[in-house]
Amino acid sequence: MADVLSQGEIDALLSALSTGEMDAEELKKEESQKKIKLYDFKRALRFSKDQIRSLTRIHENFARLLTTQLSAHLRTYVQISVASVDQLPYEEFIRSVPKMTILNVFEPYPLEGRFVMEVNPNIAYAMLDRMLGGQGEALNKVENLTEIETKILTQLFQRTLDTLREAWESVVDIDPMMDEIEVNPQFLQLVSPNETVVVISLSTTIGEASGMINICLPHVVIESILPKLSIHLWMQQKKKDHQPGEYPALEKNLKKAPLNLSVELGKSQITIQEFLHLRENDVIELDQLIEDPLLVLVADQPKYLAQPGKFKGNLAVQITEVMEKEGEDNE
């Protein structure tokens, strides 16, 4: 679809033509010439726009889940959102990473290969400080990580991978496991330098600290599941979800769900003094007569009226009436 010019742009164009600043014949020649679009083979676009949109939606969900998880775990203000989703060569991603940072390398079983989650040191140390009882200060000492600090961060980031698994389960069931924590990106050779990767950048704020969390997904690792990232496939799967016979099976399983059923013989009010002096064989007077129907509760909600009796030598009740819900009319 051609671009629509505003009235101001049309007036400026007419003015330039009338003053001789622009030549109409030259404009026609430019339109007749073939337009050439430069293509960099080192930046091969191997992901379609549809797949990029799907990855964006998955990680927007991941950002929401991670915000909730870290807010509860760190007990401080946390805000995470997707800032950008780009595809670029792995070499370019490594060059963009700071010289000293927190690189969480994990294996997304059953997919073959490894992903990496780069966490800005300001964010990582704010998390660590909160977990150790601090105010969440961003102390950057990434070069001097102790063994205890490394262990704590490993456990924390493993929990974030559980959230990542939940975000991806609409597409594929993965079980990401932490492989290692690296601090120098030069020592991290995930794939070949020219391999195309998708980098999801998450803008993160924890308390007073802010920074970026970058998730790097190599094309060669997720190539086998790329067809599942198509919107058309998602729509087909949604249609297939409602198969004939599904609802009867669901109803059958629902009938097996346990419910608490109780019968109320009556109520009574006594003082704490009377309660403390209760003894065996004492009689408590209830607020209803023997011939009055008993109240039957299902999951602590009044549902039926019944009369007491015995069945095969056991105490039992017989349902006599179904109680109407509030607001229902007898028509």
Automatic annotation (TrEMBL):
<comment type="similarity">
    <text>Belongs to the FliM family.</text>
</comment>
<dbReference type="Pfam" id="PF01052">
    <property type="entry name" value="FliMN_C"/>
</dbReference>
<dbReference type="InterPro" id="IPR036429">
    <property type="entry name" value="SpoA-like_sf"/>
</dbReference>
<keyword id="KW-0966">Cell projection</keyword>
<feature type="domain" description="Flagellar motor switch protein FliN-like C-terminal">
    <location>
        <begin position="253"/>
        <end position="323"/>
    </location>
</feature>
<keyword id="KW-0969">Cilium</keyword>
<protein>
    <recommendedName>
        <fullName>Flagellar motor switch protein FliM</fullName>
    </recommendedName>
</protein>
<keyword id="KW-0283">Flagellar rotation</keyword>
<keyword id="KW-1003">Cell membrane</keyword>
<keyword id="KW-0282">Flagellum</keyword>
<keyword id="KW-0472">Membrane</keyword>
<keyword id="KW-0145">Chemotaxis</keyword>
<dbReference type="InterPro" id="IPR028976">
    <property type="entry name" value="CheC-like_sf"/>
</dbReference>
<dbReference type="InterPro" id="IPR001689">
    <property type="entry name" value="Flag_FliM"/>
</dbReference>
<dbReference type="InterPro" id="IPR001543">
    <property type="entry name" value="FliN-like_C"/>
</dbReference>
<keyword id="KW-0975">Bacterial flagellum</keyword>
<dbReference type="Pfam" id="PF02154">
    <property type="entry name" value="FliM"/>
</dbReference>
